[in-house]
Amino acid sequence: MKIYHTKNILKSLAFIVTVVLPLPLFAHAIMVKSQPEQNATLTVSPKQIDVWFNDKVGSEYKAVAVIDSKGNRVDNKDVQQELLDGSHLYCTIPNLPADTYTVRYRVVSIDTHIVTGKFQFTIKP
Ligand SMILES: [Cu+2]
Fold first, then answer.
1. How many A from CA of 59 to the centre of ligand 1?
2. Distance in angstroms (rounded) separating the CA atoms of residues 99 and 71
3. What is the CATH number of domain 25-123?
4. 34 CB contacts (<8 Å, ≥6 apart)?
5. pLDDT of residue 24
6. Do 27 and 49 touch, CB atoms closer than 8 A?
7. What distance in Å separates the CA atoms of residue 109 and residue 111, rounded to the nearest whole number?
8. Which candidate, 24, 20, 51, places its Cα nearest to that of 35?
9. Cα of 87 from ligand 1 centre, angstroms
């Protein structure tokens, strides 16, 4: 009798987890695309850096930074989140000289996990 009862509770919990909770709300953010692309070699300095995630990310604590090969931050510190596409962050950069740059990003996923990552691109006129 007791075991049967426990099974029913477990079944109910399983139902709540799989059906009632909207699972897509708990997505963990993963960067899916960037502009410039990872390891791209460009002949001219881009005007801005774009990163896209697999899902909307939180509007707080977002960060995108561009670092030159000497470790200096060179972006304009103006990260924005696209209004109609919360998965898209971007920042502007000044006209940069030839170098290899590292883009670092930090976002808060909808599942509340903080996600950080980086990629590089090179400017070589
Ligand atoms: Cu997560």
1. 16
2. 11
3. 2.60.40.1220
4. 49, 50, 51, 52, 103, 119
5. 54
6. no
7. 5
8. 51
9. 15
